[in-house]
TrEMBL record:
Pfam family, one: NAD_binding_10
Protein's name in the database: NAD(P)-binding domain-containing protein
Residue ranges of every copy of the NAD(P)-binding domain listed in the record: 9-210
Organism lineage: Eukaryota, Fungi, Dikarya, Ascomycota, Saccharomycotina
Native species: Wickerhamomyces ciferrii (strain ATCC 14091 / BCRC 22168 / CBS 111 / JCM 3599 / NBRC 0793 / NRRL Y-1031 F-60-10) (Yeast)
Alphabetized PANTHER family for the sequence: FLAVIN REDUCTASE-RELATED, UPF0659 PROTEIN YMR090W
Amino acid sequence: MSLNVAVVGATGKTGKAIVEKLSKAGHTVTAIVRNPTKGRDLEKFGNVKFETIPLESTVSKFALYFSKNKFDSVIFAAGTNAFENLHEILQIELDGALKIIEAVEEVKIPKFILISAINSDDRDFWYPIESIRPYYMAKRIVDKFLERGSLNYTILQPGPLVEEPGLNKIKIPKEAIAESYENFNFEENYYDIKIPIDDVANAAVQVLNNEKANRKILPLVNGDTSIEEVIEKYL
């Protein structure tokens, strides 16, 4: 079934991959962007238009736009560097995400998908790592806010993102979490629990219209089980 989907943060690497996958799957996509030049580049995928609405905009502005366009789903894929600018982390990862959630709640859009981070809901996992603590604090606040609300959501929690070809395969949730605790080593090589950006996009498209993913968290770490099977059997 073709859906009408808005992607917030559509010009980042993950957002762009999601837009492309949605387009190929036959959905109608609105890319919500800050930079109109980059937005125009996304129209090449087909069934894609863009709208320039910076994340600094008000909740009411987003809600009005969402309402007018009658979206079936909104995907929040905006993000910033986990290690750097605290202001951007607060503005994008925290306040930007919360504003979009509030707007989606106000309009009662049927489905919301959040791109978060591996084990963001588990303080014991990330708090000892000072360099990523502010980033993960923001992610956890947003995840918990979403879980306690009324929205029909799916939270995707990818491991470190890599630009490699996607295999459409991940670990089942229990294994992904165990693997992340064993191999999330920021001092040496945290890419042991990597996930291709392409597979984050694959997961976003596959949870879009699958009731088994509703109000669930899906960790994303490279594995041997198809994303479809993980959603069907393990969520």
